[in-house]
Amino acid sequence: MHENNGKICTKCTKNAIIILEVNNKMYRKISEELIKWKENYKMPLMLIGARQTGKTYIIDEFCKNNYENYIYINLEKEENIKSIFEKTIDPKEIIEQIEILKGGSINIENTIIFLDEIQTSERAITSLKYFCESPLPYKIICAGSLLGVKINRFKSSFPVGKVLIKYMFPLDFEEYLKALNENKLIEEIKKHYQTNEPLTEAVHSYALDLYKKYLVLGGMPQIINNFIENDKNISKVNYELQDLIITSYQADMNKYTENTESIKNNKIYSVIPKELARENNIFKFSLINSDARKDRYISSLEWLQASNMILKCDLVNKNESPLKSFISDEKFKIYLSDTGLLRSLSNIDYNEILLDQNEMYKGVLTENYVACELFNKYRELYFYTFNKYEIDFLIKINGKIIPIEVKSGRRTTSKSLNEYINKYNPEYSIRISTKNFGFENNIKSVPLYAVFCINS
Question: Which CATH number fits domain 3-167: 3.40.50.300, 3.40.190.10, 1.20.58.100, 3.40.20.10?
Answer without folding.
Answer: 3.40.50.300
